[in-house]
Amino acid sequence: MAQDQSQHPLASRAGLPAAGRLVVKVGSSSLTSVSGGISSEALVGLADVLAERRLAGTEVILVSSGAIAAGLAPLGLARRPAQLSTQQAAASVGQGLLMAQYSQAFAAHGVTVSQILLTADDLVRRSHYANAHRAMERLLNFGVVPIVNENDTVASHEIRFGDNDRLAALVAHLVKAEALVLLSDVDALYDGPPSAGASRIPLVTSPADLEGVTIGRAGKAGVGTGGMVTKVEAATIAASSGIPALVTSTANAAAALRGEDVGTWFTATGKRQPIRLLWLAHLARVLGTLVLDDGAVHAVGERRRSLLPAGVVGLSGVFEAGDPVQLVSSDGTVVARGLVNYSSAELPRMLGRSTHDLAEELGAEYERSVVHVNDLVVLQAAAAS
How confident is residue 270, by pLDDT bands cut at 50, 70 and 90? Predict the structure, then answer.
């Protein structure tokens, strides 16, 4: 159920100047020069804007791409590599170069910065999440601007966010930010190609506002990973968990933080939820599928109950206990996603059976749900259908 936006502390972009805590994300394309590498002019310009805001009293967390891009030239690479190990090498070289420039640019204003490198594991595992939260809060208490990036050097395909836009949405949730500002080289979301005279979309109040809008992907520079589509996905993730978001260009950063009418504002449409469920709904790499009978579809999708073995009529994929799986109806409609309690090797002999029968035959450890309600997120589109 959508929350009353009149009660949200940031009901519109006009409230940004008074925000106490903001997460700002900047993309690689906004920081790189034409010849490759980091553009000192662009980086210093952004640091000037954010330092001014920090000194005015707003706590700022910067999620910055650019490590891989910064490492390309020193390694003699012309463009972002496709191979994961080469990306990791470039990130390892580039992250230090990137942070050195940020440290110098913010220090010119007397502002200290810190480096925080995260993987998806750090925001999904309960103990890691708590540690990340405590570290971030302590840094903010000291007046530091934390600079966050994905830990590209060690992250595998399985535990990657995929791009820093999604990471920024989760970080905004982690620190309970009042808003998320996503900066790139495009000034707003448009209802068509801007070069063809399309109109800016100033406000998005629900996913329905974007029906029929074609959203572009990564640009020609080849240094980023997403393009406008990931900005919209990240803004939607944030908005659905109670955090409004603004999508605009890095050139508009100062105007945006002054609350001026720039970019595209995504109003908060939902309430905050556990970050693990946010990851599960939007980012998790699904490893299997469980097919539910009609009763289980109703129990899970409408009554918000745990999934029991009796309601599962089929499965596919190879997964272990604790892996993400999707729950679908007999016609293939995705109802929910969840963390499964059994492996794909264990489940076949359990299908359609009661937990009581399973406990009697296989032992007390089998008297539990296939997916517990606390590890399950119902997908809104499926629930509404």
Answer: confident
